[in-house]
Amino acid sequence: MKDHSADPLDAFRDLLGAAHVQTGEAAARFATDWTGKWHAAPLAVLRPANTGEVAACVRLAAEHALAIVPVGGNTGLVGGTANRGALMISLERMAAIRAIRPEAGIAVVEAGAILSDIHAAASEHDLIFPLTFGARGSARVGGFLSTNAGGSNVVRYGSTRGLCLGLEVVLADGCVLDLMSELRKDNSGYDLRDLFIGAEGTLGIITAAVLRLSPRPRHHAAALAAVESLPAALRLLRRLQAASEGAVEAFEYMPRSYMAALARHRPDLRQPFALHDHAVMIDLGGLSRPLDDVLEAALAEAAEAGEVLDAMVAQNEAQRAHIWEMREAAAEITFTRLPIVDSDVALPLDGVAGFIAEMETRLADLDPGAETLIVAHLGDGNIHLTVYPTRDAADHLDAIREMVEAVCVARGGSISAEHGIGLSKLATMSRRKDPVALDVMRAIKAALDPENRMNPGKVIPEG
Amino acid sequence: MKDHSADPLDAFRDLLGAAHVQTGEAAARFATDWTGKWHAAPLAVLRPANTGEVAACVRLAAEHALAIVPVGGNTGLVGGTANRGALMISLERMAAIRAIRPEAGIAVVEAGAILSDIHAAASEHDLIFPLTFGARGSARVGGFLSTNAGGSNVVRYGSTRGLCLGLEVVLADGCVLDLMSELRKDNSGYDLRDLFIGAEGTLGIITAAVLRLSPRPRHHAAALAAVESLPAALRLLRRLQAASEGAVEAFEYMPRSYMAALARHRPDLRQPFALHDHAVMIDLGGLSRPLDDVLEAALAEAAEAGEVLDAMVAQNEAQRAHIWEMREAAAEITFTRLPIVDSDVALPLDGVAGFIAEMETRLADLDPGAETLIVAHLGDGNIHLTVYPTRDAADHLDAIREMVEAVCVARGGSISAEHGIGLSKLATMSRRKDPVALDVMRAIKAALDPENRMNPGKVIPEG
């Protein structure tokens, strides 16, 4: 072994070339994430070109007892890439879409491939990779798999977990785990793939993946509808699912709080009807038949039942895009003021209305002037709840956060539906996750990363 | 602690009552599994009544350094419950369907609940639990989850893994892991659920589960069709998926070898047309609309393209049941003679035809007189291939088995699609699974079951 005691980074420069070991100004692009809450001050950002170089970086890091933090598009929301003095491994040079295989219905991609590039590549074959969310132009494969990112069409296509058939992972000891299955079914031993998906880089670095593609719907039918209540919204969803043979691609709950904030911040996005207490955004995708009639008939039936109060059905693609824009403005209109307590909870489908009602009652006790903003992937029971308290004291924000968690967990909910844990929810994990489950996670982490060098301190709270 | 040195089973009798610690004749019902290949000679069969008793059994077993083998309906095919001198824990007394919650779309069940009982309970609410296979009248929740059992409608509803939202597991140390989530999305730490699903009882004992239900299709359309080739069958599948909006519930490949065996063994099951080289069984399930027209139109288009050579569309439910019976006779017509080399492989969808062609060529070299029987869940790329060699020598059977594995793995396939590993495929795992993956499995097994007492010797070959 060479003597790198002078500067441990020299070994990495020898390995990758000096241009791909970034420090100072060049490494500063990851210094602050886009929420503004989380910071990274890495020793260096490494830019390996292939899986072999990633593995070599991991082995070198072990020799120098350095921690490793993988980074993709850095669009996460939970501080998953925050660090001080770690080696960040950026997958950005490993962005190839190696193959689209239409007959097999798969894409083989490197971990640095950008989500919207995968969309474009699939589209050339009249296929889709269904996962989509606002940050699709920046988010990379390794990141959306490591966080098991959600999005707006999980209701039809399932979570990211279900869209990934195979993985390649560099482990803490520098070995390469080859799980690059292209199969719909594989029962050859433990399901390691799903262990690495959602592990936020704490068990290894995802370097490549096999993704499942779906036929592209040829016909879309979208609407914005004011509904009488949350249960009425869920009944409308079931009505639409039955009438469209499960073709509901998005069913997004946008109540008064959301539509009012949208009106304030995005007056350019004209709203088709006056404010109601409850509204939903609907998109149907038909493979072989137009679904406008199905959508209009379901809305008419629901209106007759008193469940739908007003509705605007998109008459063309521009109107459909307009409706989507109203939904996708969520990130931009949410993080507009401080103090803020944001959450990403999931409830059983029959527990959403009760959660919101109890949360609002208890919030009125804690902070009568606090405002809330809610937008939800209603078909998945996934609620993005933002509270704007009237006071910025840390204990006050904590009390609100704890109340939201308590109401959620008491109703069988999860304190992280799709954003993950990172650093931001460690205390929540301590308080709310089954202690036996935490012990099992710790045992697995210790077994696969005994020196605790893979994204240390994330996901699992200290025991 | 009492002195149980005289008979370690006394402690279990104290715990469960003597009637629920079965030995001798009473325990003999698990002595031979239904393949006839695998045998169990347990020290006793324990019949706990609830999760607390399961946990107490596991702790007592630890005190006495006894191995534990959980058993459900014992309908597995890979020797997963075979043992000598272990404590078998039967979940048969924990058979309750605790709740069906239609608004949430879930069933909460105990691990001993029988699959067909879950079907019946869901049906009362106009819902289905989609998983189904021949042994549904005996198979129990703990078994079908521990093996991640497949079946005929994975093509529409996904694998068992995807149909399970939550789990309760008794771990090797007797702790109870509560993962009883009712949620569509949950990103709160590592995906432990999927680690226990498919682990065949080697990491813990599943005691309860939350299952995902789906709306019951109101309209079915089924057919048997002779097709020109395997690629023509896959084109017909895509045609049907598009035309029906993804309503294909089953698409089963039944080539000449299968239909001929069916004619020999089940002459009562009248076949609607003469033998062709390739046939498929089709079932569509429509939530809101009859799909007979869709099916007939797709078959007519395919016939015009020369891809479908003959077809019989079921005109009523009796004819549909008849078509299903032809498919479900598979187990009964497969295990009719010896010697036999059976396999359960999965291929990428675009690799099925190539696999079969190469396998047949190489088999003709190894054993020119050997016959094959093939039936496949074609939509999943899952092929049940049975070879009947002309000689019974162990090395000859091994050579055939190795050849099938080699052709499968070289084409990106898996050596176990849906039946699991158990004891029957340990050698195959050694030879064919990524060695790094095996090491990761061993590390996880050692971390969660350090004394190797949970179904020891299954799934993971010795290092």
UniProtKB/TrEMBL annotation, chains A, B:
Pfam families: FAD-oxidase_C, FAD_binding_4. It comes from the Bacteria. Keywords: FAD, Flavoprotein. Residues 38-216 form the FAD-binding PCMH-type domain. Belongs to the FAD-binding oxidoreductase/transferase type 4 family. This is FAD-binding oxidoreductase. It comes from Jannaschia ovalis.
